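Hi R.,

Here's the chain you asked about this morning:
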Amino acid sequence: MGLNRIRHLETHLEIIQYFSKSIFRQNTVDDILWDITSNCIDRLDFIDCVIYLMDEDRNVLVQKAAYGAKDIRGMEVADQIDIPLGKGIVGNVAQSGIPEVIPDCSIDPRYIIDDAARLSEICVPILYENRPIGVIDSEHPDKNFFTQEHLEILTSIANISATKIVKTIIEERNEVLARFVEENPSPVLRVDSAGYILNKNRASASLLEFWHVKEDQITNQQVLAEINKALSSGSSKIVEANYDEHSMSLIFAPITDREYVNIFASDVTELRRAKNEAEKANRAKDEFLSIVSHEIRTPMNAVLGITQLLMDTNPTAFQEEHLKTLDFSGKNLLSLINDILDIEKIEAGKIVFERHPFNLREAINGIHQSQNHLAKESDVTLELNIDSDVPEMIIGDQNRLIQITNNLVSNAIKFSPGGEVNVRVKVDIQSSENISLKILVKDTGLGIEEQKLHKIFNAFEQANTSTTRQHGGTGLGLTITKKLVELQGGVILVTSEINKGSEFEVQLSFGKMAVKEDAEDLGFRFDIAQFENIKILLVDDNLVNLMVAEQFLLKWGVEVTTANNGQFAIDSFLDEKPDLILMDLQMPVIDGIEATIEIRKMEEGDRIPIIAMTADAMTRTRDKAFTAGMTDFITKPFNPEELLKKIKNNLA
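And here is the predicted structure, written out as tokens:
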């Protein structure tokens, strides 16, 4: 074999020179590779030739050109294959960087048969700066076909082509990048510290008009300042600027070692317009919810307040039954608006969880008592079980725990007419400082189809579309429950079987009380004598609500002064010097916010407690109240005991 298989008129050097000239004339990586493979067949009498290039991201060799028996369709790889680095003869040569001639592939365990088996193979790495970037490979059906001269020639070809391949790859990438920059519909510029434009694309023309460019130098002082700030800090900066009716977002990305800045600009006019429209829509939604909240809660405060006052007058059994119905219906209506407002708070990310000691057993027993009336109406047996190792006092958000459990219990009662509902509280896991509890609510009701279980936690979705018509509700209860559990780092699970019932499991973590003996002192106790000689200024423009709140205060032994607008409140503050103010927010003449600000300006010495008392339960309203200088907040309709507790805490 040997050179007798190579055209006898050509010497080793002539072959190398021919390959050099041929490769040099090619302008793309594909052209280079296909030129090498075709010339190996024409000039070296190979029957096939394959070139693989490294894909460093995947650590594999990718077949890029394959002339001869393996590809009869010209410059197209018929069945492209990838070879992992280190696998087979090709993968081993790429990994080692050492060329190889295999006289007999049948006895080499590394040989990979990809179509028809061949008996000899030559494989040469393409090295660039001693790093393999690819492999030239050829196989032949005869043993001992490839010679040492083949190896030397192919190694020379690989060395010659390596630099050309790398250079062409870089040029192609730069060309793609340049085309990307030039064709980019957004302005892209490269500017030095003096404002001279080193490079720019077509789209930058409109931006440069705003910047008053003269002889390729930016003279806009604001832009020059941002360029130098970016170079000084060495970090990218985003700036938004307005030009005529256009809003532009500008990214100043410094290349500090070259002392220039790349500027990427985006026209965000439509985005800003859409954002403004969205914010406007959100404000309209908030305003609507605020009005709905206020307009429903204001009369509800009177209804529930007067109901409570009548309940305290020793009514007859007949009257008491009607009052309970009135109280239940009012609270049910109130729960609907609370659901809507809770969703608003959750979506706005403004749910705040308290962390205070509370009596767990009292809280759960209170739920049992409040739901028992509903259970009796539905002929449901409501059972409560708290395991003996569950502590009495824990630290967490009592109100949210009650809300979560109440939602689950009322749901279970609603869907289990004539059945049973069992509530169980048990310890999951605990440490020296924390305790995880499981709250299980199990019913024997209608159950939920397995394929519909995923829907029950979605807002406004229920497993059965007739649920709202038959049982009422907003379809938000379970959505809110799930979000409240998860926002506290807990888990809620549900299992169900049609006509056999459902079981909800809530896992929540709480803090443990450090000193058990102090638990008794944490409960709320009230002594009427505590309010002797206490003067409270009650401010509300709604005369019915004013009367209801006044009746409760008088019942508790408080000395009450009333005012029906903010100006009267300011005047009364100066004349009466009250110990505490209960301030409505939405009033004529001067509202509660303005009145509070004025009172704070006139104060001398200690600040008087001012409790906002409003039917607007929106988060932003609460924030405005505290910003104005109010010390606490209670939402109408208020629970008399809650109001009493807030007054006591603020006077302490």
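One quick note: The first strand starts at residue 48 and ends at 55.

Cheers,
M.
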